[in-house]
Amino acid sequence: MGVEAGGKSKRLLRFQLEITALVLLISPSLANGSKCILFNFGDSNSDTGGLMAGLGLYLGPPAGRQYFNRTTGRFCDGRLYIDFLCEGLKINFLSPYLESSGSDYTHGVNFAVAGTATEATEATVIPFPLSTQVLQFLHFKNRTRELFPQGLGSMISEKGFENAVYSFDMGQNDIAMPFNVNSSYPQVIEKIPAILSRIKDAILNVYKNGGKKFLIYNTGPLGCLPQKLALQQQIYTELDTYGCLAAHNNASKAFNVGLSELLDEMNSQYTNATFVYVDIFSIKYDLIANHTKYSIDSPLMTCCGFGGPPYNYVFRKTCGEPNVQPCPDASRYLSWDGVHNTEATNAIIASKILSGKYSKPQIKLKSLCKA
Ligand SMILES: *[C@@H]1O[C@H](CO)[C@@H](O)[C@H](O)[C@H]1NC(C)=O
Ligand SMILES: *[C@@H]1O[C@H](CO)[C@@H](O)[C@H](O)[C@H]1NC(C)=O
Ligand SMILES: *[C@@H]1O[C@H](CO)[C@@H](O)[C@H](O)[C@H]1NC(C)=O
Ligand SMILES: *[C@@H]1O[C@H](CO)[C@@H](O)[C@H](O)[C@H]1NC(C)=O
Ligand SMILES: *[C@@H]1O[C@H](CO)[C@@H](O)[C@H](O)[C@H]1NC(C)=O
Ligand SMILES: *[C@@H]1O[C@H](CO)[C@@H](O)[C@H](O)[C@H]1NC(C)=O
To answer: Is the pLDDT of residue 10 over 90?
Structure first.
C-alpha cells in the first residue's frame, strides 16, 4: 500500500513537473500568441464595413449612433454580435478585408460583405460571394507569408493561422433570394442541397489550407424579420405561433437541419479538425417568443422605419432615407432597420454564443481558440 501510494505521489510529482515544464515551454508563445485569431466569412449580419469599403458606398446616419457615434458601414445602430465576441475574447474589432485605411489585421480579418450569398447570382450584384471571400483569405495568407520576414503585414505566423478560429455566417441571403422572387416553398427547399454543398466547399478549402477550428452559425428565423412580414405576407400568408411567416421559418429550419447534419459528417470524416455548429435560430427565436423577458415590447416592429405598427416598415421609406426617424430607445427593439438587429440585441446574442450553450459540440469559443 505504502509503496503504491509512494509510486502514485511520485507519478503525481513527475506529472506536475511535466506540466510546469510544459507551461514554461509554451508560455513565451502564449505571451504574445495567447490572444485569439479570428477569420470571419459572412453577410451583413457580421459585416463590419466591407460592403461600403468594397463598393465605395456610404451608409449614412442614424446607423452607428450608439457606441461609435459615426457611420462605420455596420447595418446597425452600434456594434454587431461579432464585435461583442471580439470584446469577449479581448481582441480588437475585426477590420474588413476590403478596408484600405486604418485597418488592423493582427488578430484576424473580417471577409464578410453585406448582401452576399454562397454564390453570385443576378439577384445579388455584390461580387463577393462566399467562395470569393475564401479566395481573399488565401491571398491574405500568401501575402502575410511573403511580408512576414520583412516584419510587415499582419505578422500572423503559420502557427497563428493553424490555431485560428474560422467562422462562417452564411445562408440567410441564399434562403431569402428565392422568396424575394415569389418562389413556392418547395422551390425554395429544392435549393438547399446546393447551398450546403457550397458552404462545405468553402469550409474544406480553408481546411485544406491548414485551418482546423471552425465555427459555423446556422441561420435565424427569416420569417420574423419585419421587412419580410411587411413585404411578403400577401404571398406567404401562413403565420406561425409568434406571428412570423411560416414558410420562411420552415425553410430556415430545413437549411439548419441540413447544416447540422453536414457538420456532424465533417466532424467524423476530418478528425483532426473541429466543426462547431452554433444555433443562432434558437437564440433569435427565443428572443421573439420570450421578448418580455428581454424588455422588448414589440418583437416584430422595426426601430428605425416608417408606418407604425405592426411592423413599422415601408418599402422605400427605410432606415437612412429622408424623413425616416429612428425610435428614441433602440434597446426596446429587436430589429434596428427591419432586417438587422439592434446593438442591444447583438449584445444578448453574443453573450449566448459565448456561453457555449447553443454550440454543438458544446465548446466555448474562448476554449476553442485557446486550445
Ligand atoms: C457625436 O458626433 C456628433 C457629430 O459628429 C457630435 O456633434 C457629438 O458631439 C458626438 N457625440 C459624442 C458623445 O461624442
Ligand atoms: C498562394 O500561393 C500558392 C503558392 O505558394 C499558390 O499556389 C496559390 O495559388 C496562391 N493563392 C492565392 C489565392 O494567391
Ligand atoms: C411577387 O408578387 C407580388 C405580389 O403579387 C408582385 O407585386 C411582385 O411583382 C412579384 N415579384 C416578382 C419578382 O415576381
Ligand atoms: C489533417 O489531416 C489531413 C489528412 O491526414 C492532413 O493532410 C492535414 O494536414 C491535417 N491538418 C492539420 C491541421 O493537422
Ligand atoms: C411549416 O411547418 C409546420 C410544421 O411542420 C407545418 O405545419 C406548416 O404547414 C408548414 N408551413 C409552411 C408554409 O411550410
Ligand atoms: C421561452 O423561454 C422558455 C423558458 O426559458 C423556454 O423553455 C422556451 O424554449 C423559450 N421559447 C423559445 C421559442 O425559445
So the answer is: no
